[in-house]
Each structure stands twice: as structure tokens, then as C-alpha cells.
Amino acid sequence: MKRILLTAAASLAMISSAAAAPFQWSAGSGGNDHWYEFVVLGSGDPSLMATQAEALAGSSSFMGLGGYLATITSAAEQTFLNSHWPGAGSVTGQFLDYSFFLIGATDRNTEGSFEWLGGPEGGNPLAYTNWKPGEPNNEGGEDYVVAWWEDSATGRWNDVPDNPGIRGYLVEYSVTPVPVPAALPLLIGGLGLLGYAARRKRSPTEA
Ligand SMILES: [Ca+2]
Ligand SMILES: [Ca+2]
Ligand SMILES: [Ca+2]
């Protein structure tokens, strides 16, 4: 078992460096110097649970920085991400794989009280929000959040359930990576995800 896990960890490390083509919000342009990546699943890949995407984001790294589902904490950060959304300047549509991306907000701890899952803001309640009208509605039990570039360039948010409906997720890189031994519990639950990560399609912005 241990050997399998170590192999999985090695594979994951390889994937995270080989598949990443993130972009930076540089301090010189008013940003935070963090890196971001829109991860899009391949068309043949089964969709992910929100918690599976959370685990994949949390075990990824880039340029020596650890990843987490993105924390969008200001209108400026939202606007920056809107401009890098893979469909920006081309097509929009709610049924496209890359029209919505999981971000790092949740109310799984206290229904109705959203907080950031990870990164520097992990555990903090949301100060900035960009909800679509009528959201969050917790319809049928929804404790995770996507930014949805449905029919506009605003990437407004919607709460979604933890079911296999995630086709893309947005990673932010800015923290110390989780050491491999500490990541093993995640891998135990995530071994089945390695196939997804290995086959995941590069987002259009990387073309
Ligand atoms: Ca952020
Ligand atoms: Ca909820
Ligand atoms: Ca909703």
C-alpha cells in the first residue's frame, strides 16, 4: 500500500508541473503576484465532485507555490480573472465545459455562512461576493461555489452541490506547498483521480 501511495504521489507531482500553464497577477499591474490556472477536464473525462476538485487543487503546485481553489476577494481580482477566462473574447454559453469553474468558497460548516476553503484566507468569511441574482439558494443542498461565465463577462457565482458536475476548476498558487507525506491522506482518497489529472485537457488559454 505504501509503495502504491508513493508512486501516486510521484505521479501527482509530475502531473502538477507538466500540465500547469498558469498566469500571474503581477504586482506591477496592481495585483498580488499570485498565479492562477483554469483547469479544464478533457471532453472524455468523467466530471468531478466538488470535493475531488478541491483535493486536486490542494495537492497541486507551481513555481514552488502550493495551490488551492481560488479565493476571489475583491472586484479587482474578479475582473482580472474575467479577462483570463478561457472563453473571454470568443464564445459564451452555459452548456460549454468551460463556462463555470469551481472556486474555493463553501458553507459546508455552517449552512448559509460562506467562508474560504484554503489559501491565505482559509476559514475567513467572504467579504467580497459576486453572486448571481437569486444565489446562493442552497437548492437541494448546495455547499460549494462556481464562478459562472454564463452569458456575460462577469463570472458571477452560484452555489452548487457536491456531486459529479464539475468540468473545470480555478486554482490559485501562493502558499507553501503541502509536503508529500502530509498530502498522503488526501491521496488515499484521491487515487482514483490520478487518471483525471493525467488526461486533463489544457485550457484554451494555454494553446
Ligand atoms: Ca485570491
Ligand atoms: Ca449551502
Ligand atoms: Ca445555487
Describe the structure.
The chain has 207 residues and is an alpha+beta fold. The protein has five helices and nine strands; from the N terminus they run αββαββαβββββαα. It has helices at 2-18, 50-58, 75-84, 180-190, 194-199; strands at residues 23-24, 35-40, 61-62, 65-69, 100-106, 115-116, 144-148, 156-160, 168-175. It has a five-stranded antiparallel β-sheet with strand order 1-2-9-4-3. A four-stranded antiparallel β-sheet has the order 6-5-7-8, covered by helices on one side. It is globular, with a radius of gyration of 16 Å. Mean pLDDT is 80; it is low at 1-20 and 194-207. The structure holds calcium ion (3 copies). The site of one calcium ion has 5 residues, from loops.
From the helix content, strand content and strand pairing, which structural class follows? alpha+beta
- How much strand? 15-25%
Low-confidence stretches: 1-20, 194-207
Count of separate DSSP helical elements: 5
Bound molecules: calcium ion
- Average of pLDDT: 80
Report the sheet with the most strands, covering strand number, pairing sense and barrel closure.
Answer: 5 strands, antiparallel
Distance between the termini: 38 Å
- The H-and-E topology, N to C, reads as HEEHEEHEEEEEHH
Count all strands and give the number: 9
